[in-house]
Each structure stands twice: as C-alpha cells, then as structure tokens.
Amino acid sequence: MVTCARHFEGETRAEIRSILEEMGDSDPQITITEMSGILTVKTKVSPKDIVKKIHKKIEDEPWAMRYTLRVIPIFATTNTDVESIAGTVMEQADKLKPDDTYRITVEKRHSDISSSEIITKIANQIKNKVSLEKYDWIILVQVLGKISGVSILKDEDILSVEKEKRII
C-alpha cells in the first residue's frame, strides 16, 4: 500500500511504477483506490525489497521521491470482518518468537468496523506480551472499506519518505 498527498495519485503511480520497473517488475498492478491519497500495488517484488530500494534511492537522490509519502507492506488481504481479520493475522503469527512483544495498529478508511473488537480478538489469540512503547513487532491492520490488509512486521519495514528525508 502506498500513500500520497490528495490529488497526486497519478504522479505517485508513475513514481512507483518506475521503481518497480528498475527492480524487474515490468507489469505491476497499481490501483488508485476510491480513497484519496491511497494506492494499492500488486507486484512480484518483495515488499521489504521495495522499502529497501526506496530507502536507498532517498539516500542517493532524495529529490527523486517527490510524491510517495509512505510505503506500507501488506502480506495478506481479507474481507473486513473481525473473524476474517483475526484469522489472517494468525496465519502470520509464527513470525513471533515466544519472548517477542507486539503492538496492534488498526488504520481504518471507509468502514465503521470496531477497532477495539479487532484488537481484542487478535490479542486474545496471541499469547505474547503486548507493549505499546517497546515492541518487537507491529500487527498492522489496514481497513480499506470491504477489504483489509494484514501484516506482521517490524518498524523499519514501513517507510515514511518524509521521515527518511529529515534524517538525511
């Protein structure tokens, strides 16, 4: 999933397409969603590799990334209902080792599903400790209307272009 400023979806699509072509995917499916500033990308390139490539691009030529704001890897999609989302999280839960901590982040767009119900259902199924401050993993649920994306990832797997540019 890629975010950009409102009304710059076309420019962002071209920017991401160019990067994916550099990485060997000549035919990615990049969709401008009905939600302003949100694009979905289906590619044969690993999401983590895309984040690394953009990070490197920002280091080498920060002016080249003009429209993309965030790149958020989504490892699975499912219907937007509490049971389906929790089930999809559990399919990825083997990433967590017994001593690992986690936090759950739910970002919702175009849905009135209860964030607290999603969090409670997931937390009841995962026995690891929850830590909102010092966590090893993020269980990320991106609700986009009737479809939700689910990922279990590290902080560094999510790319904020503005944060990276400030660091440089």
What is the helix content? 25-40%
Model regions low in confidence, pLDDT < 50 over at least 5 residues:
none
Instruction: Work out the number of β strands.
Output: 10
Spell the H/E element sequence: EHEEHEEHEHEEEEH
Beta-strand percentage range: 25-35%
The order of strands across the largest sheet is 2-3-1-4-10
Measured on Cα atoms, how large is the radius of gyration?
16 Å
Give me the secondary-structure category. Answer: alpha+beta
Specify the biggest β-sheet: 5 strands, antiparallel
Please describe the topology of this protein.
Blueprint lengths: L1 E3 L4 H14 L6 E4 L5 E5 L4 H14 L7 E4 L4 E4 L2 H11 L8 E9 L5 H11 L3 E2 L6 E8 L2 E7 L5 E2 H7 L1
Parallel strand pairs: 6-7, 6-8
Antiparallel strand pairs: 1-3, 1-4, 2-3, 4-10, 5-9, 8-9
Helix pairs in contact: 3-4
The gist of it:
The chain is of the alpha+beta class and 168 residues long. It has 5 helices and 10 strands. It has helices at residues 9-22, 47-60, 82-92, 115-125, 161-167, and strands at 2-4, 29-32, 38-42, 68-71, 76-79, 101-109, 129-130, 137-144, 147-153, 159-160.
Structural commentary:
By secondary structure, this protein is of the alpha+beta class. 34% of the residues lie in helices and 29% in strands. It has five helices and ten strands. The strands form two sheets. Strands 2-3-1-4-10 form a five-stranded antiparallel beta sheet. Strands 5-9-8-6-7 form a five-stranded mixed beta sheet, covered by helices on one side. Helix 4 links the parallel strand 6 and strand 7. Helix 3 runs parallel beside helix 4. The protein starts with a strand and ends with a helix.
